[in-house]
């Protein structure tokens, strides 16, 4: 079979999984941003500094494992990209940290209460551009973004040439307002803001949301799965009281999901931490068009009970099993997962991201088990 035919077979398999249709075999996807360089002997410092190395090593590992797909295809400087998601300074290996350590978010209050008024008066896009120099060197950021715009089409074609599908390949990235503000203000300060000045926070969130929706509506046509993350980390159900969650989190997720679907983009709910409490609300979202992508902490059996006939699952091999378990543990987890979903609506993948200390034999066992 040619690689193009293999790509099409895998693409059709994944599309059927998203639509909760029967598949010939459960598709398997790779996600191991820091695992890939560690497994191949590349330092994390080089991975962060050299975007071409980052793109190359992730494709190399995906081909070595012979997976159907990748959650996304990391390319560019990971630390610069994370800064734009969390509006926080990052410790960078080889510069701020030892060469082979993992990058680290530096939790701090960088955005001030006065910045809320600045966002309301300037608008989100103008404020965002003025804010970034506080958390990243403008030259570094500009080089990283410029490189990504130039190289991304070639990276995506390289995966296709290898017969590997990229699930999150849409040319748009979004973030809910909660995550931007919580990262910039710091978790402690922002959670206090939710109680001390809820009306102002809500007004600021609405300004940010307007800019994010406009970005979504401007998304150009594109082939492939057309997936993109609708992320949630600190906004998880386990982190936020129901009254605040229902006001500051869920409505913004729903609006972004609906906007993405209106332009043909598949929302991938990349949700870290525990979202079990609110899984029933997934029925509010359009059926068989979204993907749930948790990190090992959300109750899979509860998901299957409440939303398994409504939405596909991309996951959910926990980091603890990949790092501390054995190949037999991995095999047992995969077997239970496939049995739970009865072969429908499941794309096997590491939960969130395989950790840097994943045992290679466990990653290989994960893929081998999926083939059964």
What does this molecule look like?
There is one protein chain. The chain has 372 residues and is of the alpha/beta class. It contains 17 helices and ten strands. A five-stranded parallel β-sheet has the order 6-7-8-9-10. Strand 8, helix 14 and strand 9 form a beta-alpha-beta unit.
Which range does the strand content fall in? 5-15%
Shape: globular
Q: Element order, helices and strands?
A: HEHHHEHEEHHHEHHHEHHEEHEHHEH
Radius of gyration: 20 Å
Number of strands: 10
List the helices and strands and how they pair.
Layout: H1 3-18, E1 29-30, H2 35-40, H3 44-49, H4 51-65, E2 69-70, H5 78-86, E3 89-91, E4 104-106, H6 113-122, H7 124-131, H8 138-161, E5 165-166, H9 177-185, H10 187-196, H11 198-217, E6 227-229, H12 242-248, H13 250-262, E7 266-271, E8 291-294, H14 300-307, E9 312-314, H15 319-324, H16 327-341, E10 346-347, H17 360-370
Parallel strand pairs: 1-2, 2-5, 6-7, 7-8, 8-9, 9-10
Antiparallel strand pairs: 3-4
Helix pairs in contact: 6-7, 6-11, 9-10, 11-13, 16-17
Report a brief summary of the structure:
The protein is of the alpha/beta class and 372 residues long.
Please supply descriptive tags for the structure shown above:
372 residues, alpha/beta, five-stranded parallel β-sheet, three-stranded parallel β-sheet, 17 helices, 10 strands, 8% strand, globular
């Amino acid at each position: 079979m040619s690689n193009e035919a293999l790509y099409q077979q895998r693409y059709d398999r994944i599309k059927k999984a998203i639509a909760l249709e029967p598949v010939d075999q459960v598709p398997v996807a790779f996600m191991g941003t820091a695992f890939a360089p560690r497994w191949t002997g590349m330092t994390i410092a080089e991975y962060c500094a050299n975007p071409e190395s980052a793109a190359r090593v992730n494709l190399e590992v995906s081909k070595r494992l012979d997976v159907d797909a990748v959650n996304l295809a990391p390319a560019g400087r990971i630390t610069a990209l994370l800064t734009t998601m969390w509006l926080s300074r990052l410790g960078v290996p080889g510069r701020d940290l030892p060469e082979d350590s993992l990058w680290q978010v530096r939790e701090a209050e960088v955005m001030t209460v006065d910045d809320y008024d600045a966002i309301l008066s300037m608008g989100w896009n103008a404020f965002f551009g003025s804010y970034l120099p506080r958390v990243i060197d403008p030259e570094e950021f500009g080089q990283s973004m410029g490189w990504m715009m130039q190289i991304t089409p070639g990276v995506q074609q390289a995966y296709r040439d290898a017969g590997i599908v990229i699930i999150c390949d849409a040319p748009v990235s979004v973030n809910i307002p909660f995550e931007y503000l919580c990262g910039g203000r710091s978790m402690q300060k922002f959670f206090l803001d939710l109680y001390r000045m809820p009306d102002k926070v809500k007004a600021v969130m609405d300004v940010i949301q307007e800019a994010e929706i406009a970005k979504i509506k401007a998304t150009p046509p594109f082939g492939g799965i057309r997936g993109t993350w609708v992320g949630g980390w600190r906004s998880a159900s386990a982190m936020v009281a129901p009254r605040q969650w229902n006001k500051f989190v869920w409505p913004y997720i729903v609006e972004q999901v609906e906007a993405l679907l209106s332009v043909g983009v598949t929302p991938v709910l990349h949700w870290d931490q525990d979202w079990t409490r609110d899984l029933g609300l997934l029925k509010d979202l359009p059926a068989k068009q979204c993907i749930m992508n948790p990190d090992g902490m959300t109750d899979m059996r509860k998901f299957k009970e409440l939303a398994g006939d409504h939405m596909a699952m991309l996951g959910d091999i926990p980091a603890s099993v990949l790092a501390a378990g054995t190949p037999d543990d991995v095999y047992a987890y995969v077997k239970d997962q496939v049995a739970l979903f009865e072969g429908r609506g499941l794309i096997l993948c590491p939960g969130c991201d395989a950790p840097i200390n994943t045992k290679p034999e466990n990653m290989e066992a994960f893929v081998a088990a999926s083939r059964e």
